[in-house]
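Researcher: I'd like a candidate sequence for this fold, 250 residues long. If you have to choose between options at a position, lean toward the conservative one.
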């Protein structure tokens, strides 16, 4: 197993404040991510190092409404492994980034939720999420792209039940009747998404490494997260952004 000595965190800042991004109607999620990372790298003025962690922080203005009342933050975490430590690291990093004491909803996108993927693979991730709920730092948890069989097994096994299932509109035109009935019976919210299967490509990673002065480092993407904070009364998006965690050698 490779040993990594350096962590790079890229926080894109608030997309709502990026005029060049909010005008790009119809771009894919991976294109949006690429544009946000480019903006963050261009805006980055100095290298902030916290021990062996390098933080690339895009510009982000503090929210005017930073109290818990009337504010709801959701996060989707794209995982590269099913380690419980990985998902907790992502949750806590996003919480710190958005300056919230609790994230209302976390949806995980595991690396493999294919039809033959066993429930056992999801257990470390889900146990960690359940711990986050018990600790009061997450209110609701869900999963993306799980098959009906896997979602049903997860729901029946879990102590803290998944309240949300996200499905990709490119993979499924309609929700199966068994899944629809299961969701109705167990009060599960089914949402659609259009995220690309490959959100983060090598070009984006290379641009990050080049900007921090480590173009030849061996690097592994640990996780990618997208958060959104809305004003619940008005449905107004106050903050939206991405966070990337890379583990690199010297």
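Model: Candidate sequence:
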């Amino acid at each position: 197993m490779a040993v990594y000595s350096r962590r790079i965190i890229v926080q894109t800042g608030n997309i709502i404040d990026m005029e060049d991004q909010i005008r790009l109607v119809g771009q894919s999620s991976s294109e949006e991510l690429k544009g946000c990372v480019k903006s963050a790298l261009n805006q980055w003025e100095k290298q902030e190092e916290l021990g062996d962690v390098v933080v690339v922080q895009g510009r982000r203005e503090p929210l005017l409404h930073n109290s818990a009342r009337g504010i709801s933050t959701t996060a989707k975490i794209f995982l590269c492994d099913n380690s419980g430590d990985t998902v907790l690291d992502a949750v806590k990093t996003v919480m710190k980034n958005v300056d919230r004491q609790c994230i209302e909803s976390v949806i995980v996108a595991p690396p493999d939720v294919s039809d033959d993927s066993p429930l056992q693979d999801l257990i470390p991730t889900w146990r960690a999420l359940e711990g986050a709920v018990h600790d009061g730092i997450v209110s609701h948890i869900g999963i993306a792209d799980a098959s009906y069989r896997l979602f049903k097994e997860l729901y029946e096994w879990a102590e803290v039940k998944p309240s949300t299932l996200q499905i990709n509109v490119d993979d499924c035109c309609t929700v199966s009747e068994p899944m629809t009935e299961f969701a109705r019976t167990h009060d599960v919210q089914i949402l659609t998404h259009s995220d690309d299967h490959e959100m983060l490509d090598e070009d984006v990673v290379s641009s990050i490494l080049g900007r921090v002065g480590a173009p030849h480092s061996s690097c592994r993407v640990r996780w990618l997260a997208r958060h959104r904070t809305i004003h619940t009364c008005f449905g107004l998006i106050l903050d939206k952004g991405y966070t990337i965690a890379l583990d690199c050698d010297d």
